[in-house]
Predict the 3D structure of the following.
Amino acid sequence: MKLTEDTFFLYQSIKFKRDAKVLDIGCGDGSILSDYADKYKTIQFYGIDKVKVSARNKENLTVKNIDIKDYKKYFSSHFFDIVLSNPPYFCADEGKISPKEENIMSKTDQYLSIDLLFCSVNYLLHPKGRFYLLYPASRLYEVLTKSEKYSLKIDKIRFRFTVKDRNADIFLFSGENKKGKVDPKILFPYIKEV
């Protein structure tokens, strides 16, 4: 799998800690997780995706082809120290929908809505753990509102710009699994080289 600019933006922002348990929700084919498992031998990586996961399990890597709706069947509450996701961005009920099931899964939130993602992060993430998620900048208000609903305290936001004089296209947000006022620190923007 090619490392996309979005995935690079996500992974380069994570502060990996020794002996952590890391879950990537919507890990694609698992190849990026596999590369990180090779790089960080003391960290236990897990990946789940509804599409076929082709990466092979290793001593510090477990990948599963499961639907995120079934997360409670596979993982106990507060099991992970870090949860990350680069989920499908587009609302399933907006715009033209592709007839191909694979495109629907990878580009729309039909199978991984913001509510399902935030609810699963709240359940899976240790109270002192951290989450790192990406969404389109146009969904900022929705993200802030839903994060409070699911007791996810966003403490950092970083916008990405593809061209210096244009609006942000996506943003990365991170925080902790606890209740609290959402009052994030806005980090220096990431400007994508064109």
Summary: The mean pLDDT is 85. The helical segments are 5-11, 31-39, 71-74, 101-107, 114-124, 140-149. The CA atoms of residues 42 and 148 lie 33 Å apart. The chain has one domain: 5-191.
